[in-house]
Amino acid sequence: MSGVIAMTVQHGRRRLLTGMAAATAAGVLRPLSAAATLLPTPAQTEGPFYPLRLPLDSDNDLVRVAGQPSSAAGTIAHVAGRVLDLNGRAIPGARVEIWQCDANGRYHYVRDTNPAAEDAGFQGYGQTITAADGGYRFRTIRPVPYPGRTAHIHFKISGNGFDSLTTQLYVAGEPRNATDGILNGIDVSARERVIVPFPPAPEIEDKALKAAFDIVLGDAS
């Protein structure tokens, strides 16, 4: 697949490629809607934790870091979807970035004042390029809450021919969703567009979860 950045022949990367194929077969990537017009994904704040510097290993597998002997702590989650326009047309060649805290609630590559230990086995940031069908995939961990915020993953989509979008993905059923100020700042009619379930995905990887998150670019005002 084009756009998978810096794939290696390490066992973890081989497992990722296998997981990607299984994810497609298992329906992690949802079929395009037949509707003529889609609703835009709400924009969200980038927040203070976008990396001040990008890690040397910044591919789409955040669970394995080059040169680290151990994988990331936490529950592995395969997050996949498509980047589309308001008419449901795929947007190939878009850059999709994600960043999130590790299983200890600590962000990497920023001045995070959280005293928790940093998990050196977690990449913290990843990027990929959408395929011809607009598809993207990440292997990461299920996001966890930290003081002041519910569990979430930051997303940024950029490229030629459209305005960049920064948004956040939230976990369906997470108790702190009800009190998260940033999530609840989204109009109630649009909130569910960024809240997705994370069901088990044994067909992709043992003990892993999966999440399907299509991102629709357009005027969210």
Tell me what the structure shows:
There is one protein chain. The protein has 221 residues and is mainly β. The protein has one domain (11-29, 41-216): Protocatechuate 3,4-Dioxygenase, subunit A (Sandwich). The protein is 7% helix and 22% strand. It has one helix and nine strands; from the N terminus they run αβββββββββ. Strands 3-2-5-6-7 form a five-stranded mixed beta sheet, with no helix packed on it. Strands 1, 4, 8 and 9 form a four-stranded mixed beta sheet that branches.
Mind sketching the topology for me?
Blueprint: H1 11-26, E1 76-84, E2 95-99, E3 125-129, E4 135-141, E5 152-158, E6 165-171, E7 195-196, E8 209-212, E9 215-216
Parallel strand pairs: 1-8, 1-9, 6-7
Antiparallel strand pairs: 1-4, 2-3, 2-5, 5-6
Please tag this protein with its features.
221 residues; mainly beta; Protocatechuate 3,4-Dioxygenase, subunit A; five-stranded mixed beta sheet; four-stranded mixed beta sheet; 1 helix; disordered N terminus
Describe what is shown at a glance:
Helix content is 7%, strand content 22%.
Strand order of the largest sheet: 3-2-5-6-7
Shape: globular
Report the CATH superfamily: Aromatic compound dioxygenase
Uncertain segments of ≥5 residues (pLDDT<50)?
1-27
Q: Major sheet, described briefly?
A: 5 strands, mixed
